[in-house]
UniProtKB/TrEMBL annotation:
Entry keyword RNA-binding: no
SUPFAM superfamilies referenced in this protein's UniProt entry, alphabetically: Periplasmic binding protein-like II
Name listed for the protein in its UniProt record: Extracellular solute-binding protein
UniProt lineage: Bacteria, Bacillati, Actinomycetota, Actinomycetes, Micromonosporales
Protein family: Belongs to the bacterial solute-binding protein 1 family.
PROSITE patterns: TAT
Superkingdom of source: Bacteria
Keyword list, A-Z: Signal, Transport
PANTHER family documented for this protein: MALTOSE-BINDING PERIPLASMIC PROTEIN, MALTOSE_MALTODEXTRIN-BINDING PERIPLASMIC PROTEIN
Signal peptide coordinates: 1-40
């Protein structure tokens, strides 16, 4: 994501975004989607059985000497930044010696499933929002009271809009807040390679029809308008979440919660539009057949594509070569045909330095990494664990970590951005106020949606029939 690279979505040393790797000098933790099966030890991951969930804050006892604290993670930087970040924490909290155990992401999922219920996992855990947090809620300590004590009564407003709510929404109703946002990103925003776009007029797409024109011109030059690595499946739901929201904001999240149906006209319209983008050839050839996610993004990084749906979680890619900070820009996907006008952006713009269109497509948001502590720790370990969370999610830790991941706190940017990209980065986070929730509460829902998208886009299946199957899967998961 020598040293083994962490298995998460990020960027390799050439600037290539991969599903499970990150830039050697940067851990982005881009919210790779967990595919872990349900915990047998926990019963259903619906979270309905909350009898074992802790309800009170842990009793913290400052140790008289040094305490060794173990962090389990897939999202930790490579050397030398790994040691620099560890040292920064230990200097801030000298009573604690931090040991970091970093896993490849699939191994991490496997390790958590047995070690967390058995009490043999790390003292502090990095988790993804949605189904991963939901599986382990009953084994984690509640943190809200500690957050109020550390950051003040308004602590939640100090984090990027929606990030704390995303963690709250990851657990069943009535369960406590059990993790804090450490890394948070806005995704789905189109990043633009100006040099490639110049070969098709130089203007970002301002409508679907304009996008099609750009694509035709670029294809004639063996270039592509947009990249999509649909073969990996998990990127596909991002587009459906975004496109469906243009017809009805929040519809995907509402449908998963049972408050609406996946057969709602808005979801059908979003899925039909996704299929239309294939028919109109906006993408690299045969995205479901040949390119995996890394291959598709490699087209953008290597100057073969005009746009890619990246967002702040790809910020480290800007630093891979000197020209990217000047050659790249960003905009939102233009308004969808037949979608209603929507002023969700308020006074914000739809692109920097060029606008795309009014009523442009919403981005998505995700807490890449949420930090939690086990609920069965001794009081001195609880103190040490909270000090790590407090520091990592506080201003000092977020500044120290900004060289390696996208901060979850407001007002903190990764280092090294030029003036224009500082504006673009802040603009991404501003758009987060209207962004869609990316993660799913249940892995069953995600898998069903992935299957529906592939069936409709590749096999010309009936959208409503496929979405009825998604409804059934979500209902079973909620039971």
């Amino acid at each position: 994501m020598g040293t083994q690279k962490p298995q998460t979505r990020g960027i390799d040393s050439q600037g290539l975004i991969t599903r499970r790797t990150v830039l050697r000098a940067s851990i982005l933790g881009a919210g790779a989607i967990t595919a872990a099966p349900l915990l047998a030890a926990c019963g259903s991951d619906s979270g309905n059985d909350t009898g074992n969930s802790p309800r009170t804050a842990p009793s913290l006892v400052k140790p008289s000497g040094t305490v060794t604290l173990t962090l389990w993670t897939w999202a930790w930087p490579e050397e030398p930044l790994a040691t620099e970040l560890k040292n920064a924490f230990e200097q801030a909290v000298p009573e604690v010696k931090l040991e970091v155990k970093k896993f490849p992401f699939p191994d991490y999922e496997t390790g958590l499933r047995t070690a967390v219920p058995n009490g043999t996992s790390g003292d502090v855990l990095h988790l993804q929002t949605g189904s991963m947090i939901r599986q382990y809620t009953q084994f984690l300590s509640p943190l809200e009271d500690l957050a109020k004590q550390a950051y003040g009564a308004d602590w939640e407003t100090q984090f990027l809009d929606g990030s704390v709510k995303e963690i709250r929404d990851s657990v069943a109703k009535g369960d406590p807040l059990v993790a804090m946002p450490q890394q948070s990103s806005i995704g789905g925003v189109l990043w633009v390679n100006r040099a490639v776009l110049a070969k098709a007029g130089g203007t970002v797409p301002t409508s679907h029809e304009h996008f099609v024109e750009i694509s035709k011109e670029l294809r004639s030059q063996n270039l592509v308008a947009a990249t999509w690595g649909a073969k990996d499946n998990w990127p596909n739901t991002d587009y459906l979440v975004q496109f469906a929201s243009q017809f009805k904001p929040g519809i995907i999240a509402a449908a998963e919660a049972g408050e609406a149906s996946f057969t709602d006209d808005a979801v059908v319209a979003g899925l039909n539009y996704l299929k239309r983008t294939l028919t109109d050839q906006l993408w690299n050839a045969a995205p479901f057949a040949t390119p995996a996610f890394p291959d598709a993004y490699d087209l953008f990084f290597n100057g073969k594509a005009a746009t890619a749906a990246i967002g702040t979680w790809g910020t480290a890619a800007l630093f891979a070569t000197p020209n990217r900070l000047t050659d790249w820009a960003a905009c939102l996907w233009p308004k969808l045909p037949d979608a209603p006008q929507d002023d969700w952006m308020g006074q914000s713009v739809s692109g920097i330095p060029q606008a795309s269109s009014p009523s442009a497509v919403r981005p998505w948001r995700t807490v890449n990494v949420a930090t939690a502590m086990r609920g069965d720790l001794t009081p001195d370990k609880q103190w040490a664990a909270w000090k790590f969370i407090e520091w990592s999610c506080g201003e000092a830790g977020q500044k120290a970590g900004s060289a390696t991941y996208t901060p979850a706190r407001k007002g903190i940017r990764p280092d090294g951005l030029n003036a224009e990209w500082q504006k673009i980065y802040d603009w991404h986070n501003e758009l987060g106020k209207g962004a869609e929730r990316r993660e799913f509460a249940f892995i069953e829902t995600r898998k069903a949606i992935e299957s529906a998208i592939a069936a409709v886009c590749v096999n010309n299946a009936d959208p409503k029939a496929e979405l009825q199957r998604v409804d059934a899967a979500a209902k079973r998961a909620r039971a």
